[in-house]
Design brief:
alpha/beta, 29 strands, 6-stranded mixed β-sheet
């Protein structure tokens, strides 16, 4: 491109004091989105140019102006936001004005609450600030915002419509502790969500059958609608499974007729009272359509979480025909889903049914799906590696061939069901996130990135990279991260890159461990807390990380913005894991516990004998091997369990496996309190473990006060000694 063309392409020059941001009068009352967009625009432009940027409500053709929102001026400039795709916006220069406009709703507030409203003008402002000002929104707050200083901002001639590559773009709302306690974390999280341009409309796709309250509405009159257990009993309550999604259907029963009638009623525009639709987590329920199950022209018919197998003769026969025993319900669930879709069409009812490929029915079915079925596919996403990642990708492609572009529901989160709830272990893996989403992007219409952590900063760059792919379809993660290190840390970019490369390596290679196959996809054998604190993030292992931060801090001026950012990283990524390791390892001290017992002789409610348990490789398929001891534990009381354990080559073969103790059991519901939550594994000398717990006031009729020592989901040998359970006084929290 030559200089003459460059001169012609330069349409506007934004210099301090010589331009304004224009919104229509009283925008704060009628156009809250536009008003917030103006606040963001003037804030970042003022910081970039080093001078305040004026906000005006009067159009002046003789003055350079940035016109925000859909209004008479943008219409006169030829912009029709009604014709734009959802979340799309226009960037257009005409005369002395730059127009940024898209479809916007007028929510009650942008500081908190729901984010499901149109805000395309705001998205346009962020696009402009990133593209032409050079701003970067890694996370809210001065430490996460990059605003380069400029003498002027040059805007080329523009007449461009922008829209996201994915129509559905969301990540977990459980963001962990905010790094700045002086801020309103909910408002700051909303800023992140806005700036990363997440979705503005919810398409329900998660456990709609539970949200339809089927058991509350039909349990008494139609127990045949609900699943049969192995005893031949219909289950119409949560007596067998203490789970938020408490009722499960007999999936060959007439319950599907009720689901169809509900869907038809909603999609036909009827009120919830027609079908007696109720909502709420517990009585008294309210009449109403649950927005997480029915929204717009979409109705969610997905089964409840933790699918319970029905053992009635009809279901048993149907499930026996499954090609894949793990996904035994595939043809039954998707067959009924397709049937309901065809019935809606036959009855002339518009709209869509949403269904997720999930536990027990993830496979692509043989049945043909009508085009009013919207598919979501669940898998674990970015943290699955190697041949298992290839297997998950192949499933995505098969679903694409079957039903077109789908939404992905990716359980890549640091919480108990899918990874680990062990606090203060960083989960920052932007390269893994990019590898996965770049690969699947051509086959999806969007994704829910369920990636929460206990600390917000652990997920910030994961979400940022996800947002780039969700908006643009692909992202060069190496370029993004190199820019991130340079803009955030200046002269310390190189050691900070080395630091975060090691953080990602530790999570992907050491924490996640080996991979196993489950009914909802591949899962990792997460390292135990014992290994996490004594090996992976031990004091010794943390020292090289601290050294990299020392090197980074020495490369930048003391007190600079870069130095403050490095200090924040040290606090969250080094100091927090180090403190956790120190506290944990102190608790492992056998000598300290023996001294405590001498100083304060405990009165144990269990008579324990030293026990050794060995599980050989030929017994690896057994869920556990245990030795039980009677215990005089009582409902409603607080206790402390304490024991010593020594391990020899303990190797888990399922999540959370290892050497553990279990307090109280109920044979009917197989419930117990497990200590520690992730078992001791590996080979190690004698260590100590203790935990405090409370027995619920209400216990099952077959409550058995006992303590087990076990090897659970693992092979190897564990020696247990000195186990005591003592009643304690627990102070109430104020």
């Amino acid at each position: 491109m030559n200089a003459a063309i460059l001169i012609i392409a330069a349409a506007l020059e934004l210099t301090p004091g010589k331009f304004e941001v224009l919104v229509r009068p009283k925008a704060q009352k009628r156009d809250r989105v536009v008003q917030f967009a103006a606040e963001e625009m003037t804030n970042f432009l003022s910081r970039a140019l080093g001078a305040p940027v004026k906000l005006t409500t009067k159009f002046n053709p003789n003055r350079t102006q940035i016109v925000l929102g859909s209004n008479d001026w943008s219409v006169a400039a030829g912009i029709n936001t009604a014709k734009l795709p959802r979340d799309g916006f226009v960037l257009k220069t005409k005369g002395n004005a730059l127009y940024i406009a898209g479809a916007d709703d007028n929510p009650k507030s942008l500081k908190g609450g729901t984010h499901y409203f149109q805000r395309a003008t705001l998205f346009g402002v962020y696009e402009f600030l990133e593209r032409y000002v050079g701003c970067r929104f890694y996370f809210p707050g001065e430490l996460g915002e990059v605003v380069p200083r400029k003498d002027r901002v040059t805007v080329p001639e523009l007449n461009e419509t922008c829209a996201p590559a994915w129509t559905e773009r969301s990540f977990s709302t459980n963001r962990g502790s905010w790094y700045d306690e002086t801020k309103d974390s909910s408002a700051e999280f909303m800023k992140e969500l806005y700036r990363l341009r997440m979705e503005t409309r919810m398409l329900p796709c998660c456990h709609g059958q539970y949200k339809s309250k089927l058991v509350q509405r039909f349990g008494k009159e139609h127990p045949e609608y609900f699943y049969m257990n192995k005893k031949g009993e219909r289950v119409v309550s949560d007596a067998e499974t203490k789970h938020v999604h408490d009722s499960h259907l007999c999936y060959t029963s007439a319950a599907w007729d009720e689901i169809y009638k509900d869907a038809k009623s909603y999609l036909s525009g009827e009120g919830p009272e027609v079908r007696g639709i109720i909502m709420g987590k517990k009585p008294p329920y309210k009449i109403g359509w649950d927005k997480q199950a029915s929204c717009g022209m979409y109705y969610d018919i997905m089964p409840n979480d933790g699918l319970k197998r029905c053992y009635c003769p009809v279901c048993t026969a149907a499930f026996a025909k499954a090609k894949n025993p793990v996904n035994y319900a595939t043809e039954v669930i998707w067959g009924k889903t397709a049937e309901l879709g065809r019935r809606l069409k036959a009855d002339g009812v518009g709209g869509y049914l949403t269904q997720m490929a999930y536990s027990g029915y993830r496979d692509v079915p043989d049945v043909e799906l009508p085009d009013n079925i919207i598919v979501t596919v669940c898998n674990n996403g970015a943290w699955v590696q190697g041949k298992f990642a290839d297997r998950d990708f192949a499933l995505v492609k098969r679903w694409y061939e079957k039903a077109g572009k789908m939404k992905l529901y990716n359980n890549t989160g640091k919480f108990r069901s899918h990874a680990t709830d062990i606090p203060d272990v960083p989960t920052t893996t932007p390269f893994a996130v990019a590898r996965f989403y770049n690969r699947v992007s051509p086959y999806v219409r969007g994704a829910y990135f369920c990636g929460p952590a206990d600390r917000f900063l652990y997920t910030a760059m994961n979400s940022y990279v996800f947002s780039r792919i969700a908006w643009y379809g692909q992202a060069d993660v190496a370029a993004i991260m190199d820019e991130h290190y340079r803009l955030m840390y200046g002269a310390a970019a190189k050691p900070m890159k080395e630091f975060f490369t090691e953080i990602e390596r530790k999570w992907m290679k050491e924490v996640l461990g080996e991979i196993i196959e489950t009914s909802i996809g591949t899962k990792n054998l997460i390292a135990s807390e014992f290994r996490m604190r004594t090996e992976i993030y031990s004091e010794k292992a943390i020292k090289p990380l601290a050294a990299l931060l020392d090197k980074a801090a020495a490369a930048v001026p003391a007190g600079s913005l870069e130095a403050r950012r490095i200090a924040l990283v040290r606090r969250e990524y080094v100091d927090a894991p180090l403190k956790a390791a120190q506290v944990y390892t102190a608790g492992l001290s056998v000598a300290a516990e023996k001294a405590r017992r001498v100083a304060h002789p405990p009165k144990s409610v269990v008579k324990f004998k030293p026990t050794t348990i060995t599980v050989g490789k030929n017994e690896a398929d057994k869920p556990f091997k245990a030795v039980k001891f009677a215990a005089d534990i009582k409902p409603g009381k607080w206790y402390r369990i304490s024991y010593f354990v020594k391990g020899e080559d303990i190797k888990p073969n399922a999540k959370r496996g290892g050497a553990q103790a279990v307090v109280w059991q109920s044979e009917a519901i197989d419930k117990g309190k497990v200590y520690p939550a992730t078992g001791f594994d590996g080979s190690f000398d004698w260590v100590h473990h203790s935990s405090e717990f409370r027995i619920p006031k209400r216990v099952p009729e077959d409550f058995k006060p006992e303590v087990d020592v076990r090897i659970i989901h693992a092979t190897g040998t564990a020696h247990f000694d000195g186990l005591i359970v003592e009643e304690i006084e627990k102070k109430k929290k104020k």
